């Protein structure tokens, strides 16, 4: 078994078929197919079920994490010999829960790419809770962006701390040209969104209770993250968002105002205590800079 076997194996896993993997690798289908057969013969097991596509068997799924870890280890060994101060190449596997793949991940990736354009980044969807940490433990991802406090222990963490909140309301909403006070929400039609990045009803009510005010009753509550901004633009109501999504809403015509309170973000970046690849170390350093800023 060599690097070629692992690269071809993971390409088939990620792309779902021999043909798609071959296109990704710039190789012929017979070449990739032959490599997979060689690997199965060496391991004496079937790694994929064949049909309209290629799905990993239980043996194949067990190999995914170690294969990614092995490739990262090989890259780390190569980078230890080469001049890696500028990170001219490499790969980075980041696992993110769906709710955080836009904010804060988009801005972090943008800044990382500006510094290290030669690094290829793979953003992989992971489950909320302990299952996401399973992917980190098994080496499927090198970094994990998920909720804080964590659902598992034994990992290094970089919490994102507090971030300013932004009130976002439909186009044309008359709002004073100043930071919006939290108590002013009681007089507005508000959309509640119970996921990280938007502020759910419970968070809103805690903020109001701290000012001696009663509970807020939203006009709509949705668990569909991508529906929030269209609902705002359609005039259904406003909500409170963080950074990137608030900026997007403003560009699309929404009325935005900073809020006069901050709130813990409820998420963090996690990684294992063992050696990180240079690409991952650079990303962790960037996140630490962001939390200080």
From TrEMBL:
- Is Transcription set as a keyword in this record? yes
Pfam families hit by this protein: HTH_1 (PF00126), LysR_substrate (PF03466)
Residues of the HTH lysR-type domain: 1-57
- Which of UniProt's keywords are assigned here? Activator, DNA-binding, Transcription, Transcription regulation
Q: Is Transcription found in the keyword set?
A: yes
Read off the lineage from the record: Bacteria, Bacillati, Actinomycetota, Actinomycetes, Mycobacteriales
Q: Which family does the record claim for this protein? A: Belongs to the LysR transcriptional regulatory family.
Which domain of life, per UniProt?
Bacteria
Return the protein name: DNA-binding transcriptional regulator, LysR family
Q: Listed GO cellular component terms?
A: protein-DNA complex
Name the PROSITE patterns for this protein: HTH_LYSR (PS50931)
Molecular function terms, GO-annotated: DNA binding; DNA-binding transcription factor activity
